[in-house]
Give the backbone structure.
Amino acid sequence: MSDWNELYLEVILDHNKNPRNNEELELYTHEAKGHNPLCGDRISIQIVLENEKVKEAKFTGSGCAISTASASILTETIKGKNRSEVESLFENFHGLVTGKETEKELGKLAIFEGVKKYPARVKCATLSWHALMAALEGKEETTTE
Ligand code: ZN
């Protein structure tokens, strides 16, 4: 990953080393497990949705640096957002990492743009998002395949 912006890589490595919101919630309204069989990543997302807004978000599980950092930044990013804001973030993020779209209003999530050059890692970057969407749809688990 030598052509990846160094600053972006630093942020990813930092979130992998010190993941934010990496604990279990005692009380939550939505939860789903995500599995990426290609890489072996397993990430569970728990959220508290109150009045259609994400009040709290946590993740557990284990995975590679990219899936862990992505879950960490996801939990930071979605707090305070409502369901449709979360859905459009996912759409924009997915478009960015698959190289279909350029960055739009993604904030810190934009650092994952580099994965578009590594198709195998796209699933690592989007795993926690797939788990989040599954949770919002009332599903218990999802897989990237
Ligand atoms: Zn991975």
Summary: The longest strand covers residues 41-50. DSSP finds four helices and four strands in the chain.
